[in-house]
Automatic annotation (TrEMBL):
Bias-annotated ranges (Polar residues): 277-295
Coverage span on the entire protein: 949 to 1329 of 1329
Compartment(s): Nucleus
Ranges where the Homeobox domain occurs: 179-239
DNA-binding region ranges: 181-240
Domain CUT: 55-142
Start and end residues of each stretch annotated as Disordered: 1-51, 270-314
Protein name: Homeobox protein cut-like
Length: 381
DNA sequence: TAACAGTCAATATT
DNA sequence: AATATTGACTGTTA
């Protein structure tokens, strides 16, 4: 990191960290809100080099504690009754959903790309000046005022309303016609997700053939299955990052937390990252332990019907996790895992353990792939 | 070209 | 109403 910083300085000038960018290539129109492009208002601390673009600042930024930053931001937002939407759109230039995700599962700084670090630098900058909170609150008030005004006029005019604009105000709940034209969002049924998760456990990187099989068996488009695997892999990764940070937090607090139970948070000040740590499951965790994860048998999974087990049932636990290459490692033999670098030690928590196993298999896949090449070069896991 | 990283934006949940 | 979740899309990487 520091070398990167040095290189930037030594170059004296950042060549072209990508031109200003056309921005918003996504869908054509973006709700008003944020300025079409460029640096955003960027609440710089007037004092410091306020002439730098965020990209430059990101490039020179020292390592930031992403977890700590999001924690602080969440605190400030809730304390001042500020929502994610406003904060995201005016400060970060991101949508509400993205903000929610970012605040809930920040990736560690060293795992972020230049682009990915940007929101964190913006948040840090925002936090650095308490005045920013006031400014945001002002914005909120103005928004509310504008909203009230609009509502009023539309009430009194009851019909014409927004006709003022060149009718660009399409969409928004209106035209039942457009709703049909736009392809509906795919929503995977719980059974389908289960099947996919099982398939993932067995093989994080399914072959095209396997993907085709899954797709036809679950009656899904191939692209949907592919997307699901991409998304699941990266989200699983993020889960692990977060769990690691929280676990580390517990240790340094000298607090032992055997497992679930959100006891902590005793009087004392600062951080207690967990309110209900482990248990979470955060939707990625597969809670259907049980159900011998043994081999993904294609047949049983028919999205339609399938009156298999209902949710909640089978809380038993202790299912021999499915045949990952590491399924042989059991809790009963802790010494076995001692040969693995501490960060890879298998946790006893069933859910977390499965994720770790999946991750290890994931790593193995990459190692094998890398090994098959001549120049191993960088092995970073 | 496959896999990723970041996001969006439609839905689901709270 | 505010947040959380998540399939899909765009741009990047190797």
């Amino acid at each position: 990191l520091s070398s990167a910083e040095e290189s930037v300085k030594s170059l004296g000038e950042t060549p072209s960290l990508q031109a200003p960018r056309a921005e918003q290539p996504q869908s054509s129109e973006r709700s008003e809100g944020s300025p079409p492009s460029t640096p955003l208002p960027l609440p710089l601390t007037s004092s410091s080099h306020s002439s730098l673009s965020i990209q430059e600042m990101v490039a020179m930024s020292p390592e930031l504690d992403t977890y700590g930053i999001t924690k602080k931001v969440k605190e400030v937002l809730t304390d001042n009754n500020l929502g994610q939407r406003l904060f995201g759109e005016s400060i970060l230039g991101l949508t509400q959903g993205s903000v929610s995700d970012l605040l809930a599962r920040p990736k560690p700084w060293h795992k972020l790309s230049l682009k990915g670090r940007e929101p964190f630098v913006r948040m840090q900058l925002w936090l650095s000046d308490p005045q920013n909170v006031e400014k945001l609150m002002d914005m909120k008030r103005m928004e509310k005022k504008a909203y009230m005004k609009r509502r009023h006029s539309s009430l009194s005019d009851c019909q014409p309303v927004d006709s003022g604009l060149q009718g660009v105000e399409f969409s928004r709940g209106g035209s039942p016609l457009h709703q049909q034209l736009k392809k509906p969002r795919v929503v995977l049924a719980p059974e389908e997700k289960e099947a996919l998760k099982r398939a993932y456990q067995e093989k994080p990187y399914p072959s095209p053939k396997t993907i085709e099989e899954l797709a036809s068996q679950l009656n899904l488009k191939t692209s949907t299955v592919i997307n699901w695997f991409h998304n699941y892999r990266s989200r699983i990764r993020r889960e692990l990052f977060l769990e690691e940070v929280q676990a580390a937090g517990l240790v340094e607090e000298g607090r032992l937390v055997k497992s679930a139970e959100g006891n902590c948070c005793d009087g004392a000040e600062s951080d207690c990252p967990i309110g209900k740590s482990a248990s979470q499951e955060s939707s990625l965790g597969d809670d259907s332990n049980t159900k011998s994860t043994l081999a993904y048998s294609p047949a049983p999974y028919k999205p339609t019907t399938s009156a298999t087990q209902g949710p909640g049932i089978n809380r038993s636990h202790a299912s021999p996790l499915g045949l990952g290459l590491f399924s042989c490692l059991s809790d009963s033999n802790p010494s076995a895992s001692s040969t693995i670098s501490n960060s890879a030690r298998l946790p006893r928590d069933s859910s977390l353990r499965k994720k770790k196993v999946a991750n290890l298999n994931n790593i193995i896949h990459r190692l094998e792939k890398a090994a098959s090449k001549e120049e191993p070069s960088e092995w970073e896991f």
